[in-house]
């Protein structure tokens, strides 16, 4: 008898989980062994069931799918994760694959492609569809922002001045200005408005 591919579904939306479950039940070679609605639950259920592939939502109420993937890969080096997301920003894709995800598909994927992705990942390969590869190719290697720069960026998009940013972060206005200049350079944009747009489009901020 042919061995089934055992799946863990991780998504905080009940309707999405049911939709996935019903879709995968149509394929006799697939067996859903558990469902999780949070990152913590995903970690617990993975350790209990040791599935062949985890289908992981990028946005979860406690931990991000990226953080869950990183923790799984650290504890179970052979963990195979397929990131299942509504977001196609190149930063999201880049970070997910950096964390150890073996593939990345969008939630509007059809049943045939989802099944193909599961089988490819289960076989030990990566599944990066053309539309994801294209977005990944747009990732700028020099766009990685430091933690402090991310904090400045979050205040910058709220319309705060360098002086106000400095006051909130406990640094001088010149230091805040220096961080803003670095952010614009790393994101390869010319002003604050473009920086805010790029941050949302690329998945750096949500």
Topology:
Elements: E1 5-10, H1 14-25, E2 30-36, H2 39-49, E3 53-57, H3 65-75, E4 81-85, H4 90-99, E5 103-106, H5 111-122, H6 130-137, H7 147-156, H8 162-169, H9 173-187, H10 192-201
Parallel strand pairs: 1-2, 1-3, 3-4, 4-5
Helix pairs in contact: 2-3, 3-4, 4-6, 7-9, 8-9, 9-10
CATH architecture of the largest domain: 3-Layer(aba) Sandwich
Biggest sheet, in brief?
A: 5 strands, parallel
Strand content: 5-15%
Give helix and strand order, one letter per element, not per position.
EHEHEHEHEHHHHHH
CATH topology of the largest domain: Rossmann fold
| N- to C-terminal distance | 46 Å
The helix/strand class is: alpha/beta
**Cα Rg:** 19 Å
**Largest sheet strand order:** 2-1-3-4-5
Low-confidence stretches are none
Give the proportion of residues in helices. Answer: 40-55%
Mean pLDDT: 90
Overall geometry: elongated
Reading off the top of the CATH hierarchy, the class of the largest domain is best stated as Alpha Beta
Helix count? 10
